[in-house]
Amino acid sequence: MPRSKPASGRTGRPPVTSRAQILAAARRLIDRDGWEKLTVRRLAAELGIGPTTLYHHVRDREDLLIQLLNEHFDRTVVADLPSEPRDRLVAAAVVIHDSLSAWPWAAEVLTTDGLLGRLGAPAVRMVEVVVAGAVDAGCTPEQAVHVFRGLWYYTVGEILVRAHSDPDRPGQATFFADLDPADVPQLAAVGNQWPVLAAQDTYAEGLRAFVDGLLAQAAR
Prior knowledge:
The protein is mostly helical. It has 11 helices and no strands.
């Protein structure tokens, strides 16, 4: 009776790795280790493929981050914006804020100047909404860019401060406690209320005041 051939290992081409699988694995790595640790080599190991295979889908680490951000904004930037220019500015900034708040590491990545301009729709459309809203409110195109930059810095800064704040950190309960009123009278008066006050969400309130101030300054 002829001897049967031993079972061979997997032959032929490996399963095709889809873009969805790549981005899902990248998100897992970021959630587990942080975005700073994301590299093409580590992602390839996560997927069980060679880096050369992965380079068929992404050019480099920056391209991978941009693809991740575009996918995130595609899912989260959905807005029915008001027609009045000032209200449109506020609403667009809130949409950007809420999208990035759901993924704070994205805000940190986008602090790299110039990276924002490499994103696709709908992220770029939201930048257009803000700039166009400022122009419709009476700004020159140059002033409108400054309006966007001001709102962008305010928004990203608020997200990152909250993301890196830990209300349970030792010493937070006594923040600004036992200060000398003769030296810093206002801080001494606030005292231990500071952590409670700082934890309050005042983004939208501050945003409206910020927009009004920027538009008034442009009008002058």
